[in-house]
Specification:
alpha/beta
Amino acid sequence: MDNYGKIYMVPMHLGAENFTYYLPPDVLEIIRNIKYFVAENAKTARHYFIALGMRDRLQQITVYQMDKHNKNFDCTQYFNVVKTGENLGIISEAGCPGVADPGANVVAAAHQAGVDVVPLVGPSSILLSLMASGLNGQSFAFVGYLPVKNPERSKFIKKIEERSKEFNQTQIFIETPYRNNAFIETLCNTLSPNTLLTIACDITLETEFIKTKTVLQWKKQKIDIDKRPAIFLILKK
């Protein structure tokens, strides 16, 4: 609707504090002029606003905390704000909202309500890791978290490995950081020796690490990325 505000998909940093490195000045200006936000965690969002130089405006900012465990939560209060002509920002905990993120539920409801959605440029660990992997960027799938326990975990790993070979499709997935080292060991013990495995962690940070090797090569190299946010990619030739 012409008199409605817009919903802006506001990117969140991946840990780097140099915001000008990944947020263009025009994007920063848009964020700093929004007064209403929807976030996974209101406290995290307010810390982000302070880092963006918005401390003096905190009292004028309203943050709605979404119920990310309820896919059917009511978005009416968000759209009532937009209907008054005010813009609304959606913020993820990290990276781009709506991508591997519950903010997608709000966006889906926004389209149903006839509200314009505007994605802002920002970092996505999924795409950044794919860009730097050397694996197939023409066909890829993000499968999120894998099953935690065996034998389901090993079966799923083999399944997506075969999918990657059948369709020449890069498979991208994540793990809870404190399980990274054990997860790498599982990958090396489950995947075929010649399957390519990319390990990408601390993306955009000074400690950034992105390497692609065969599983056989990874078996010969000990790596410790315990408690560091990471993305994993595989491609079986």
